[in-house]
Design a protein that fits this description.
The chain has 152 residues and is an alpha+beta fold. The protein has one domain: 2-Layer Sandwich (Alpha-D-Glucose-1,6-Bisphosphate, Chain A, domain 4). The chain has three helices and eight strands, in the order E-E-H-H-E-E-E-E-E-E-H. The protein has an eight-stranded antiparallel sheet with strand order 1-2-8-7-6-5-4-3, covered by helices on one side. A hairpin with a 2-residue loop joins strand 7 and strand 8. The longest helix is centred in the C-terminal third of the chain and has 27 residues. The radius of gyration is 15 Å and the shape is globular. The protein starts with a strand and ends with a helix. The mean pLDDT is 94. Belongs to the AHA1 family. It comes from Geothrix edaphica. Pfam families: AHSA1. InterPro entries: ASHA1/2-like_C (IPR013538), START-like_dom_sf (IPR023393).
């Protein structure tokens, strides 16, 4: 299921994996990077930032910061970041960050994973629509990636 407004992207997927397995794929920074396609320097700690770079072909030039907000074991993992920071000549540090939330819920078949990214309406007008469009498509592919990762 997918729903979105101009400010918020919502995706969900039923994963055939126990909630503890999905939680590890989200909360362990090295494992997160494996399925997400990034190399992170350090672990996830609420209130702290972790830095890294994208490892997908043609996106290796993207360096990023993830500011971890909340980690509630096997239920919620959230962080803030600058969405779609493609222009290496632009300083994104003064721009608002969007909030990414992963919600986990145990089901009879495994785990329901919901991803919500919000805050796009706060972004500068010149990049708001493209950041939303690219992340909307990006989350669609990331849901498939985590599904393959936790199944294997």
């Amino acid at each position: 299921m997918t729903t979105s407004s101009t400010d918020c992207i919502r995706k969900e997927i039923q994963l055939r994996a126990p909630q503890a397995r999905v939680w590890k794929a989200l909360s362990d920074a090295e494992e997160f990077g494996t399925w997400f396609g990034m190399k992170l320097e350090g672990g996830f700690v609420p209130g702290q930032s972790v830095f890294g770079r994208i490892t997908h072909p043609n996106y290796e030039h993207i360096h990023l910061e993830m500011r971890v907000e909340r980690m509630e074991a096997e239920r919620l993992f959230s962080y803030r970041w600058h969405p779609y920071p493609m222009d290496m000549k632009r300083d994104y540090s003064a721009e608002p960050m969007t909030l990414v939330e992963f919600h986990l819920e145990a089901t009879g078949d495994g785990t329901l994973l919901k991803v919500v990214e919000s805050g796009f309406d706060q972004l500068p007008a010149d990049r708001r629509d493209e950041a939303f469009r690219m992340n909307d498509g990006g989350w669609t592919s990331q849901m498939a990636r985590i599904e393959r990762h936790v199944a294997g």
